[in-house]
Specification:
binds uridine-5'-diphosphate; binds nicotinamide-adenine-dinucleotide; two-stranded parallel sheet; 318 residues; seven-stranded parallel beta sheet
Length: 318
């Protein structure tokens, strides 16, 4: 198979490239590095089946030769990133998605859109099944991301129905693991970075809001199961392991062996109160469910951040 991964130098994209190559596929990663980094795939560059191209997918997405699969993952994903890049986020979710769909149409390729649990907004149904329409504020600060993804879903379905493209939509719930940017602003990289530095760990509000957190290896397995099927989705992929942000912060401090204290900071506007995937569809349709337990996954991620920060420290030594 020959696969194109947009956003291939990002956190999830780099893991997808790695897994596709490991199973023998050829991979072309397209990225403009706005929130990603070529370093995330530097270990793949010697593989003759891998190629990284600097491309802004809102301008054009052209690839020569056959393409069997397009995984469209380009988009800022952290709230801090998309609030700094509001127009770019809307453009990549709309124009970028349409360009990637055109490539799928030209090549007769299977197309998978990276959508998000954010399409459910601040949900009034809990846990969230795919049939729930969501509770999103289009004119709130998060609207730039939520509506970009909701448009992405609609335009994907329209291309499927109008042009017969073999499309799939995955709604990804909060995922963590190695290669998250330590300063990307999301809770887990913040909590780990702060714990390892002995800095106060910043918990928003009273920390009672919950998220359900999934290890990247499990997520990638679910995405590839959907990619290998013909199912249109949307399908939730995430680990139903739900935890409050206060408890998550305390757990990470403990696992990191840190003396950090918790500091309470203001809660962002429209920050969802709860979030948990109903994964019944993924289990029945794809035979998929998360396998890595969260404590093991947090330990592995903390170890990765520790090694990265030691390497960064060493590279600054004279
Ligand atoms: P990330 O920021 O690490 O990766 C996104 C990548 O897309 C980056 O490498 C960035 O440079 C690239 N990109 C952005 N705009 C681009 C453009 N115009 N052209 C080319 N490349 C562009 O984020 P991530 O966590 O790996 O998220 C990847 C995808 O998964 C996103 O679409 C995100 O919305 C979705 N998602 C992620 C999560 C999660 O928990 N990580 C949850 C839900 C959805
Ligand atoms: N959060 C926090 N401290 C931080 C960063 C985030 O308490 O330093 C909170 C944030 O307000 C939200 C939750 O953690 O309630 C998850 O935030 P994240 O940005 O990781 O993901 P998302 O909001 O997109 O689910």
């Amino acid at each position: 198979m020959r696969a194109v991964v947009t956003g291939g130098a990002g956190f999830l994209g780099s893991h997808l490239c790695e897994r596709l190559l490991a199973r023998g596929d050829e991979v072309i990663a397209l990225d403009n590095f706005v929130t990603g980094d070529p370093k995330n795939v530097s270990h793949l560059r010697s593989d003759p089946h891998f190629e990284l191209r600097q491309v802004d997918v809102t301008r054009d997405v052209r690839v020569e030769g056959d393409v069997d699969l397009i995984l469209h993952f380009a988009s800022p994903a952290s709230p801090v990133d998309y609030l700094q890049l509001p127009i770019e986020t809307l453009e990549v979710g709309s124009i970028g998605t349409m360009h990637a769909l055109s490539l799928a149409r030209d090549k007769g390729a299977r197309f998978v859109l990276a959508s998000t649990s954010e399409v459910y907004g601040d949900p009034q149904v809990h846990p969230q099944p795919e049939s729930y329409w969501g509770h999103v504020n289009p004119v709130g600060p998060r609207g730039v991301y939520d509506e970009a993804k909701r448009f992405g879903e609609a335009v994907t379905l329209a291309h499927r129905n109008t042009h017969g493209i073999n499309t799939g939509i995955v709604r990804i719930f909060n995922t963590f693991g190695p290669r998250m940017r330590p300063n990307d602003g999301r809770a887990i990289p913040n909590f780990i970075r702060q714990s390892l530095a002995g800095d106060p760990v910043t918990v928003a509000g009273d920390g009672s809001q919950t998220r359900s957190i999934c290890f990247v290896d499990d997520l990638v397995a679910g995405i590839l199961a959907l990619a290998d099927s013909d199912h249109p989705g949307p399908v939730n992929i995430g680990n139903p392991h739900e935890i409050s942000m206060h408890d998550l912060a305390a757990w990470i401090i403990e696992l990191a062996g840190s003396t950090s204290v918790i500091e309470y900071i203001p809660r962002p506007v429209d920050d969802p109160t709860v979030r948990q995937p109903d994964t019944t569809l993924a289990r029945h349709l794809l035979g998929w469910g998360p396998e890595v337990d969260i404590e093991t996954a947090l330990r592995r991620t903390i170890d990765w951040f520790r090694t990265e920060s030691q390497m960064a420290h060493r590279s600054h030594l004279p």
